[in-house]
Specification:
Layout (H helix, E strand, L loop, with lengths): L2 E4 L2 H10 L6 E9 L3 E5 L9 H5 L9 E2 H12 L7 E8 L1 H10 L9 E10 L4 E9 L7 H16 L4 E3 L1
Antiparallel strand pairs: 1-7, 1-8, 2-3, 2-4, 2-5, 5-6, 6-7
């Protein structure tokens, strides 16, 4: 797990809320505090969909909402003349991307050990910090998956020209 301090806040906010840069993530949960506090539970409510839609892997491929589908709502809640007091998003990397990172790094997992690569994005009204993490199905002594995710995330930030410093 590593924490990254965002150096160029305006550029980061544009990439987070107005572009597809983070669209390879799912939203587990979010909190946005402006004049009101808004809580977002990213769990898909499958009962909202018909039985056919629930079984369609294109319509309901994951247990959590796609960031790209929730991003416009988050932007609407955040935009305005005043800076939000705070926000926090817990994102999960798409499972297919996670599996590729693990496989390319030589870590063998059939999905029984590592559940998700997580990314916590926190804004305190002034600064934004990003923290990587792991959600596992069991305790892992091996830190290799965590290291692979941290390395991949640094490359992700650099490739997208997001300025950061390690905290």
């Amino acid at each position: 797990m590593k924490t990254y301090q965002i150096s160029n806040l305006k550029d980061f906010m544009n990439k987070l809320l107005l572009s597809d840069v983070f669209d390879c993530f799912l939203l587990e949960e979010g909190t946005i505090v402006t004049a009101n506090a808004f809580q977002i539970d990213g769990h898909i409510q499958k009962n909202f969909y018909t039985k056919e839609e629930q079984e369609d892997p294109v319509l309901c491929p994951y247990d959590f909402s796609l960031w790209k589908n929730v991003r416009p709502l988050c932007f609407q809640l955040i935009k305005g003349k005043r800076t939000p007091l705070s926000f926090k998003f817990i994102l999960l990397l798409f499972p297919g991307h996670m599996a590729r990172i693990l496989e390319q790094g030589g870590f063998q997992d059939n999905g029984s050990l590592v559940k998700y690569f997580t990314l916590a994005i926190r804004f305190d009204g002034t600064n934004a910090t990003l923290t990587t993490g792991l959600s596992t199905n069991t305790f892992l002594m091996d830190k290799m998956p965590e290291q692979l995710w941290d390395d991949a995330f640094c490359k992700f930030l650099d490739k997208r020209q997001i300025s950061w410093e390690e905290s």
